[in-house]
């Protein structure tokens, strides 16, 4: 095979792209799609009526127009275009309007992790057609339409247990209806070299029924959060008194924790309202930094005097397995959100390696 033809939906900041780069697997992007967490307010049916009323020739042009009229820019698109080689016509704002039949046979690997809030209604529906309107449906639909050799679907493990397992039963039936062999498992990034306790469900599907795929085994973790920290951190990352007291309060330890060797799952809202992991900095290390001293509250943590700070974007993205040459081009709120929404690159690297070892591609 020459270059791998890759299509992604819910593309985010491109974790699979990074995994392929790391594994030195050359690839072409066939298409990518992300609406940048900007939902069009009306339903699919209302949109279709609006489209018929509009003078637009194609639905894709109409949908692009709808998104362009929103006041919030697509920050995910900005991040994606800054880091990967992709043309405007290969980008789709909204996965629901991608006509996959156009790409039939042109995609080797389709990858996506639908937003988790979308699966809550699937369990109540019967089959693929009945799951229409959920974003999971669009993943399955695009497998059916593009017919990739391999697909990788990622989601929160809660998908397996939601609604007493009814949701997963439905999703499994939908995967079974796609004419693919598939396997699924939950993998934790701390077993794949990244000190983050992030469990995610992975489903790998492949077309060649004579082949078998095996998920990668984890390995012992050899790093801690401290190996991913930057040396000079700007004053704006330091917490004031309220923040210091919040993150060191045992009562909130499920939301905020300080100086953990293995960080908790990074989320879209991490680092805001004191959610996520934080770093204690001894007073000695900042005593000559006027800017930090003006902003930071100096308190006592585990008997030591010092300040507490957030993880920087660079540290957060390192803790998702991204390299330092990844360009962060968006403001801080979307930057942290995009990082927390992503997939840990090293887990995908291990999956990709097994996909090649098992020759299912
Ligand atoms: C859980 S995140 C997945 C991020 C991605 N896996 C990564 O590696 O960065 C879900 C993504 O789906 C996007 N999304 C939500 N609704 C969408 C839609 N209708 N069409 C396209 N993307 C959508 C969100 O903007 C978000 O980036």
Quick take:
With 361 residues, this protein is α/β, with parallel strands linked by helices.
Find the structural class using helix and strand composition.
alpha/beta
The name of the CATH architecture of the largest domain is: 3-Layer(aba) Sandwich
Mean pLDDT: 93
State the assembly state of the protein chains. Answer: single chain
Percent helix, as a range, is 25-40%
- Can you tell me the CATH superfamily of the largest domain? Vaccinia Virus protein VP39
Textual characterization of the structure:
By secondary structure, the protein is α/β, with parallel strands linked by helices. The chain has 2 domains: 4-38 and 74-216 and 345-357, Vaccinia Virus protein VP39 (Rossmann fold, 3-Layer(aba) Sandwich), CATH 3.40.50.150; 231-311, no CATH class. The protein is 30% helix and 17% strand. The protein contains 13 helices and 11 strands. It has helices at residues 15-22, 44-53, 59-68, 75-83, 135-146, 158-161, 166-176, 241-247, 283-286, 290-295, 313-318, 332-341, 345-357, and strands at 4-9, 27-33, 91-92, 109-112, 150-155, 181-188, 199-206, 256-258, 276-282, 299-301, 304-310. The strands form 2 sheets. It has a 7-stranded mixed sheet, with helices on both faces. It has a 4-stranded mixed sheet with strand order 8-9-11-10. A hairpin with a 2-residue loop joins strand 10 and strand 11 (304-310). Helix 1 (15-22) packs across helix 13. Residues 10, 12-13, 15, 33-37, 76, 94-96, 113, 115, 135, 341-343 line the site of S-adenosylmethionine (SAM).
